[in-house]
Amino acid sequence: MAGKRCVSIPQVIVAKNAGFCFGVRRAVEMAQNSAPAVTLGPIIHNPFVVDQLKAQGVSSVSSMKEIPSGSRVVIRSHGVSRAEKQALEEMGCCVKDATCPFVNRIHEMAREAGEKGIPLIVLGEAEHPEVRGILGWTSGFAIAVSDAAEIDALPELDCAIVVGQTTMPKRRFDELAKLVLQRVRHGDVRQTICTATLQRQAEAVEIAGKVDVMLVVGSRESSNSAKLYQLCRSVQERTYLVETAKDLENIPVFPEEHIGITAGASTPDCIIKEVVARMNDIEKQVIPSEELKEQAEVPATESDFMADVEKTLVQIRPGQTITGTVVQITDDEVCVNVGYKADGLVKKADLSSTDVKIGDEIEVEVVKVNDGEGNVLLSQRNIVNRKSWDEIMAKYEAGEFVNGVGKEAVKGGLLADVMGVRTFIPASQLSLRYVEKIDTFVGQEMTLKIIEVDKAKKRIVASRKAVLIAEEAEKKKAIWASLEVGSIVKGIVRRLADFGAFVDIGGVDGLVHVTDLSWGRVHHPSDVVSVGQEIDVKILNVDPERERISLSYKATQPRPWTVAAEMFPVGSVVEGKVVRITTFGAFVELMPGLDGLVHISQCALTRIAKVEDAVQVGDVVRVKVLDVNTEAKRISLSIREVLEDEALENVPADENLGDEYEIAGATEPEA
């Protein structure tokens, strides 16, 4: 095979956590969207990006004096001091705050230290813009230290809050914090290193230990890139910091060597791609076959090279469910590392729970691989909603009820939350009766029956009324099953009609016919009972099919003739009402169902031709009981004897009437 060359492409390992982090990407996009605008200092430490932004109308100034009043100002990811931010607002500037969420978190810690009067110690470079901004957010004692000598110069303190620059290597942070605690009796050390930085640094060190050459792509002005370079160099001596692909010309790399590539958080994707492409363009000097020769002679395009790079990354697609790690949290979004070339964003509204923190592993669904701005859109709620939807559909198909909570009164009904799925309840389905104020159901827990489903649009219509009807039916079914003919139960009079009274006996109504209200004569049910009155009734008959129950009120009362002799003993004088007159006498009602007869001869003191000459129907008269025959159901009464007794009582006590006396006008009745 002499005279021929062999082409061999070296193995290139590209770090997954290379390039723009969430905070930097957010800052750059905010600057692009705000053009024309100015930034107080470069938006990020990368000349290429700064020049790009300048061409788009975003310029960088070095001091507040250079910012015209009323300008649109973008605060860079490093943040600014509280005084600078207030000054911008006082100048009437339209401020767009692109401060990294991790830096904002440290600002809050600095504010806390000032409010509590606790000294603040920042582990980091005093002149770094991020550190200067942090120091400007506390109103108390604050100082930045970056080495052992500066820590030794600290005064002895009783307490202090200790934070670190977000890009500081974890090992360096721990070493400096340990030294600070020797000068502070009660030090509160806060872990403030960006988790994306920790992951980037850990991955870079791991790759550096596996390759022959390690390339760190980033600006020499970037603290993040410089620290990344130092970490990799501590593991692999042949580590090089390159700003662009042009810097690769003077770096000795041999075709058979393994190459590792990472990039600082301020390095744009286009520069990383160019460096990867150059590394993949190295050729060996021997050709094993004509086929490989032909492959080597084909020029590699950028897309070919990036395809090789992306082979090392996770492949994702819309609708896919994956597990990622929370790396950053802002007011509106959560940034999740899913192992893809770009981190994913989850809107707070798309979280199933807002109780998440940095470092948590969460299950998310890919909504969009690219939203048009290079972002991967994720959703956690979609997964929960899908599981909830499946569970709701299973209950719907099984005819089971679901639980919901009223959320919002809308036109025509109520919106409710059912297991996270928005559900509409028409006003007519809210209750058994007309609902005047729908908003009274907001916040109320309720059991619902799904009555309509649009699976394509994932819309649900439910009914509370259907549940109430079903509950009433079950309740009635149980009541009907418990009804026993002949038993006496308590009930409440609900309604009166000419033919009887309707009585509620525990959820179902029964009828007491007018003839069963009393043992006596009843002209109208209101003569015996009233609406709302609680009474005992006896169940006479039950017809479940026709839902009819016959009741009796009089059956719970004693029969009149069984107590007649006790209640009306012979010789007693009682009052009664004349209810009927015949030719031979007048019938007087002593109690409902119990009448006695006053013979015509006992109606008056003197002889009368007819009963009406002495009494009329409806008169209330006093009568004396002459005889009670319970077997024959007859009671003999006398008005005459009552009148005679009253006449005797009116005779003066000192008059000597003798053994016999005569009442004027009185004669013996005919036999």
Structural overview:
The protein has 16 helices and 32 strands. By secondary structure, it is α/β, with parallel strands linked by helices. Helix 4 packs parallel to helix 5 and helix 10 packs across helix 12 (302-310). The longest helix has 18 residues, at 381-398. It is rod-shaped and about 155 Å long.
Key structural traits:
671 residues, alpha/beta, five-stranded mixed barrel, rod-shaped
The largest sheet is:
5 strands, mixed, barrel
In the predicted model, the low-confidence regions spanning at least 5 consecutive residues are 1-9, 283-312, 656-671
Q: Order of strands in the sheet with the most strands?
A: 13-14-15-17-16
What is the CA–CA distance across the termini?
165 Å
Helical proportion? 25-40%
DSSP strand content: 25-35%
Taking all Cα atoms into account, the compactness measure Rg is: 51 Å
Chain-averaged pLDDT: 83
Q: Please report the total strand number as a whole number.
A: 32
Shape: rod-shaped
- Give the class from helix and strand content and strand pairing: alpha/beta
In DSSP terms (H or I, runs of 4 or more residues), the helix count works out at: 16
